Amino acid sequence: MPEGHLIHRHAREQHAALAGQPVQLSSPQGRFDPSPYADKSLTAVEAYGKHLLYHFIDAPVLHVHLGMRGLFLRFADPTVPPRRGTRLRLAGPEVAYDLIAPIRCEPLPPDAERALRASLGVDPLRDDADPVEAVRRLTAAAVPVGTALLDQRIWAGIGNAWRAELLFLAELTPDAVSVGDARARRLWQLAVEYLALGRDAGQVVSDPTAPDERWVYKRERCRRCGSPIRTWQLGGRTAYACPVDQPAVAER
What we know:
By secondary structure, the chain is an alpha+beta fold. It has helices spanning 4-18, 110-119, 131-140, 145-150, 160-169, 180-201, and strands at residues 21-22, 24-26, 41-48, 51-56, 61-65, 71-75, 86-91, 96-100, 104-108, 230-234, 237-241.
């Protein structure tokens, strides 16, 4: 599933390419009704966690969630015909984006938009993110920190790859239950810093000196110390940790 850094990258790119002008919406697949958006100008493309929100003048907010298989195809020539399986095409004068296989592509009335926002936690890549609230939500979770990080009601936008790499950088084992304020603040600072690097690079970047490498995620051995990576199921996903660099910790 695309994690928050890629969703924010999509929002930034599409906002720059399409906002401020009429955007033509179509659904070659026929599973989305574009009529409420006919001849409407797009004012903003907003990312919140793993969700995209498209704001139009005099039209409902358009909500997109890519899920596990969803993706965007970009066409520099908007006259290129879309694939038949395209759920939604967003076409401006100079560029088009085709949305393939999302789990959500729907108009949101105001009450549904409010409910969506209320359901989401603090997003490390949003300008309105509250670090104090982020720490409060994480430390209040009575579950292992690795489970909490995948809960979008606590922090929005974190997926399994970022969970593994951020916890390695914070020297926290995913199954630690009590991490304390200091460690939670450190983990939040790492999320803010590294997700921004990932957004700009278009991939998970947990080591700026080797952006294509990972410390523990989907590795057999720790890239730092060479120890065999420990893997187990946690929060419905495979957890990865180095037993040397991510020992069990006491709250502090």
